[in-house]
Design goal:
Helix content is about 15%, strand content about 40%. By secondary structure, the protein is mainly beta. The chain has a domain of about 200 residues: Rossmann fold (3-Layer(aba) Sandwich), CATH 3.40.50. α2 runs parallel beside α6.
Length: about 500
């Protein structure tokens, strides 16, 4: 296939929408496309859209909790969208690619050298019940992507996080995420990045009915009550568990020993540094009375004895994820400081308790769990970024630089993972059978509900792909109902686990 000029300014992009005043999320998709500089032509297929809340979907969203995001269904007149041109059809316009947004794909009257694509949410075109079934069934995420309608193929397969107590929020999240897909897919097409496959299997769904809404509302109410009781009567307690002299990257759970913090605080996000038969474990420490995280160090001997060394860093904002690495014969730390909107780098001046601020790596960015890796010819930085309607659980961004000091260049395929079930980093990269693997959190539905280990398949300055290798359930570790960090250095393997500490225990 002859590809058009990779400069978006030379492209003609056709977009099919359901009305002259489509939903706000469709207007946002058009705004995003126009911002690329491409020539955007819009064809209206009146009465073809299935979006907007109506019928039992409206009832379920009203009963199931308030929407926590802007209304994706608010009308957005095309006259208010700068840079788009409404046309009667695409004939004689030499359209390079066609996107159906809020409209079921139809190739009867459309062809384009880069394909005809349809925004698909939950395995079909966007509709009134988008995300509602996933919320009722606690699926954790709503699968979405661009389905090619003139040939097999998908682009930008991804997923949006479920709000288990609010179908309206789940639906809004999915639609606002769908608005990003055409622009991101356009970049993939121009860079000739391969089409993907849907993130998960989509189960058949029957239309919403009075019975479904009644039973679903009952389930939502039970969840809300259970959540309220837990918040009132239970306290979050994270703990660190250690394994000594374990073979392989996956913990041997029967040999993991918990290190439990004093009752007035918890420990999480462990990063070990082994030195002979002694090791330090750097952790997030959360004193309940303080109400935010600080960073601390534990010491453990190879015989299993351990002690708390003290605080290593405290700021007026929340700190966590003390990523430790060695460079130029010195020890460095890159903690999470997303609450301050920055990513900072510290250098150790008296190991392990005294650290000095070295520089700010990123400014005005909400990046969480940033993870460094030294490659053969460059450094890589993984981190989840939240912006606008996208939470920090949902999208993994990749950067590269010559040194840890930067400047950090965004990967052109960002976000390289867009799925709350596998995006958020869960520790340093590890080697398994000679392949680099990335630990990842499953945050679908609930933060830290499990861990994944993903094998990196392709990793260059222009391309990135990975595939699942193994899932680790928190129930494998005695007493845990969640976990979100796995790290290893030398003879020491560490994970963290969560449990609910019920009052008055």
């Amino acid at each position: 296939m002859d590809m058009p000029d990779p400069d978006p300014a030379h492209l003609c992009v056709g977009v099919v929408v359901p009305s002259l005043a489509p939903a706000a999320w469709i207007g946002q998709a058009l705004n995003n496309l126009a911002a690329t500089g491409a020539h955007i032509v819009v064809r209206v297929v009146s009465g073809s859209g299935t979006g907007g809340l109506h019928g039992w979907s409206r009832v379920l969203c009203a009963i199931g909790g308030a929407r926590m995001l802007p209304d994706p269904d608010a009308a957005c007149p095309l006259a208010d969208v700068a840079g788009v041109h409404v046309v009667a059809d695409f004939v004689d316009l030499d359209v390079d690619v066609v996107f159906h947004v809020g409209v079921a794909g139809d190739t009867a009257t459309e062809t384009a050298p880069m394909g005809v694509w349809e925004v698909s949410v939950g395995g079909r075109d966007t509709g009134s019940d988008t995300g509602l079934w996933e919320t009722l069934q606690e699926d954790g995420a709503v699968d979405l992507g661009l389905r090619r309608v003139d040939a097999p193929g998908w682009l930008r397969p991804s997923a949006s996080r479920v709000q288990r107590l609010s179908p309206a929020t789940t639906r809004a999240r999915a639609l606002w995420r769908a608005a990003l897909l055409p622009t991101r897919a356009l970049g993939d097409l121009l860079a000739r990045r391969d089409a993907g496959t849907p993130t998960g299997a989509v189960a058949p769904r029957r239309p919403l009915s009075a019975g479904v809404v009644l039973s679903g509302s009952t389930r939502l109410a039970r969840r809300a009550v259970a959540t309220g009781v837990r918040r009132q009567l239970a306290r979050n307690e994270w703990f660190v568990a250690c394994g000594i002299d374990m073979a392989g990257p996956v913990p041997q759970w029967s040999r993991m020993t918990p290190l439990v913090a004093p009752r007035d605080r918890f420990w999480a996000d462990p990063f070990p540094v082994v030195d002979g038969d002694r090791a330090c474990i750097f952790v997030e420490e959360w004193p309940y009375a303080l109400g935010r995280g600080i960073l601390a160090a534990l010491e453990i001997q190879r015989d299993g004895t351990w002690r708390h060394l003290g605080t290593i860093l405290e700021q007026p904002w929340h700190l966590s994820h003390p990523f430790i690495f060695r460079w130029q014969n010195e020890t460095w730390m890159m903690p999470e400081s997303s609450a301050a909107g920055t990513l900072e780098l510290y250098r150790c001046v008296a190991y392990p308790l005294r650290w000095q601020h070295e520089c700010t790596l990123m400014q005005d960015v909400r990046i969480v769990d940033a993870t460094l890796h030294e490659g053969e010819d460059r450094w890589w930085l993984f981190g989840n970024i939240g912006v606008g309607q996208i939470s920090t659980h949902e999208e993994l961004h990749l950067f590269f630089a010559d040194t840890p000091l930067g400047p950090w260049i965004p990967h052109p395929a960002n976000p390289v993972v867009a799925d709350p079930r596998t995006a958020r980093p869960a520790g340093k990269l590890l080697q398994w059978d000679g392949r680099w693997c990335r630990p990842a959190q499953d945050c679908g539905g609930r933060y830290g509900s499990a861990l994944w280990i993903h094998e990196i398949v392709e990793w260059t300055p222009t391309r990135y792909s990975e595939r699942p290798r193994q899932r680790l359930e928190p129930q494998l570790m005695a007493g845990a109902n969640r976990m979100h960090t796995l790290n290893r250095d030398g003879w020491l393997t560490v994970v963290d686990g969560h449990r609910d500490r019920w009052w008055p225990t």
